[in-house]
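Students often ask why we bother predicting the structure of a whole assembly rather than each chain alone. The short answer is interfaces. A chain on its own may look different once its partners are present, and contacts between molecules only exist in the joint model. In this exercise we take two input lines together and write out one structure for the complete complex. Read the inputs first and try to guess which parts will touch.
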Amino acid sequence: MISDLDAAGSAALRELSPADAVERLNLIAADEAAKTLAALPFAQAVSILDQPELADAAAIVTAMPEALAGRLLEAVADDRAADIVGGLEPDVAARLIQRVGAASRSSIETLLAYPAGTAGSIMTTEYVAVPSTFTVGATLDYVRRVEKSRETIYAIYVLDPGNGQLLQVVTLRRLIMGDPSAPILSLAAAPAVVTVGPLVAREDVARLIRRHDLLALPVVDDAQRMLGIVTVDDVIDAVIAEQTEDVHKFGGLEALDRPYMQISFFGMIRKRAGWLCVLFLSEMLTASAMQTFSDELAKAVVLTLFIPLIMSSGGNSGSQATSLLIRSLALNEIRLRDWWRVALRELPTGVVLGVILGVIGIARVTAWQMLGLFDYGPHWGLIATTVGASLVGIVTFGSLVGSMLPFALKSLRFDPASASAPFVATLVDVSGLVIYFSIALIFLKGTLL
Amino acid sequence: MISDLDAAGSAALRELSPADAVERLNLIAADEAAKTLAALPFAQAVSILDQPELADAAAIVTAMPEALAGRLLEAVADDRAADIVGGLEPDVAARLIQRVGAASRSSIETLLAYPAGTAGSIMTTEYVAVPSTFTVGATLDYVRRVEKSRETIYAIYVLDPGNGQLLQVVTLRRLIMGDPSAPILSLAAAPAVVTVGPLVAREDVARLIRRHDLLALPVVDDAQRMLGIVTVDDVIDAVIAEQTEDVHKFGGLEALDRPYMQISFFGMIRKRAGWLCVLFLSEMLTASAMQTFSDELAKAVVLTLFIPLIMSSGGNSGSQATSLLIRSLALNEIRLRDWWRVALRELPTGVVLGVILGVIGIARVTAWQMLGLFDYGPHWGLIATTVGASLVGIVTFGSLVGSMLPFALKSLRFDPASASAPFVATLVDVSGLVIYFSIALIFLKGTLL
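Now the answer. The structure tokens for the assembled complex follow.
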């Protein structure tokens, strides 16, 4: 039964582009959205469900009559259908997948088998392929015939008719320029087709598509037989999703898998509490380090005044270096074996930056003392020197640690982007305290200490 | 004169794809690269120079004979030529641009006039447009004729023959499916063409291309006349460049405009020292705050032991919240006016996270005291309470400040992504100290203080 309300809702949607319709549907509950979609013309419902931006598509499909849900899943692109089915409750997924025709069902099941974030998980099986025995004219006729059911026809894949191996790729652009009676292989452009395996990471797929300016990248098995293609628009989505993950990780939390406002309160706590506790436990070492120096602290309380200032400077220079190296490694500008080149750059950079801050720090202590704003005692000159020298040491150390951390993670086969700003700050804080108190012992032994 | 060495170098390049050739050329000096390019067949030199990944293309072009440089600039895509000319010394640019034919010269000069990071600066003027009076067959003939000189032919723009306004867009896909005698407008798909103005930011262009799954987006002037198109591969480049900028900014430095290893030593210092000094000067407030509490510090040195631990926790929770909100605002998941919704979520989230850390903190003090690892004195229970309560306050405050900072920047018309982790940490540090000492005064008045 379609109520008046749903009919009114769907009438309002009917005029909108799929992207705009998705924005409307994202504002209402899943069961309302399901009713609205059901009341739309079938083709329009398909094009809306096809948008990856439609939040909670799984819940919407679950709330629909099963027959309609099955028909819709069959009609959307296979890679999108696999995304939706992957988000369903297992029992609902098992029931709905039986409603989908055998061809679509088998490709959805194939796609679901690849781990998230791989080429296999974002590819589509709806591409155009012809045997190498075809002429240009025959290929164009074939493209016209199958166009409706393919996600893209801008790249046509030429296969060996014997073993099904991918031989070449011909762009639609070249196809329409070609002589109809010429063999299709005469239009092949590149010396060799660029391909990836199904388990290649999506960011590497993005890099290849960008590097070779492709509209689609074929995914092949070990025997060079085609499994599917990743299209350029899927890659943009993947790049943006990767970017969100990286910023979340750099901010020091587990990447959220859904928008801020849609994650549950306890889901949010889970994503943040884990790293926060790890950082807190590591930072506890600062309390231990300070306990070790508690005799010195009691003698020279004035030293404590500069602890936050000096420690944060080490963390800041470390965070700068980490952000630089995370991106350079992600863009393959720098390789793992170049770590020593980077260390040789960061060392003098850190020293210069440390000297700049050190001079400001000394000027600050001197100015406050001279202007009578605060009395650091008779040894204020030595205190200023301690602060300045510590800043040089800690900023240099921060730059080195911050730049080497992404390399260390990469060599341990972790994602270099897991190096977060808070993590670097924590690493630098503990050693920063030790540097500060050691330098204080050198300069203040016999006077304050 | 082409030496044997250059001939050998270019022979080695001749077999490679443009992307691979670029990688080789990026490893050698600009004048060597210029000689190698000059020794290659012209078409191959063009396709290599066309790659945006070729570093220092401006220096390579400068090192070439002027006649050849002019021919190459004329042959590469106009948007790429504008990029290269934009990187030349002004006098070299003025001389070379005179070597380029009038049509290309005028579009290069137009493109150069748009500010970096806008749709105008990344668009190409090499698109296909036909008047709305054309039939499908006439359009296809025209496309075949001009194909060689256009960056993309996958979108064909239909213009009003009277005033030149953009009326519709027809995809090549639909064009080859159409009846040759039908009018071209019969193939138009969308209710309205999606367009942008030339000054729209590249990330908004990326968002539109992604939202509407386009292969190219037309750029129009105020009178809806076409200026150019932004293609999907330019958008991927723009998204990745934006991502690098955002990570650099979040790390607390000015975004580098070239790869880590290619920036000069003093260029690097400049990009990092500015923010480092701003952060250092702001963090000096911590020293001032501690000076205010110096009497309390002298009475209860034990309080200083926990300063780094407590302060860093505020910075960490702030950094988490900032990274979440930067992305949500960038992806338009959340709008400026939703700030209070976010504040209402961050408040309880911060309290729960603070309680978790507070409990761990109290357990730490208690354990060390009980196990005899450190003696916090007779009032250790009150000290533990102070640490626990401060953590709740500071983590909550950090989450709030960290989440509101991107909104504040956006409402001041700054990029929300300028909110860096070190900046948030600095903001939270100063107020964190005040919170800590105020709570200490409440709990320890009459005993330690």
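Check your guess against this: The radius of gyration of chain A is 30 Å.
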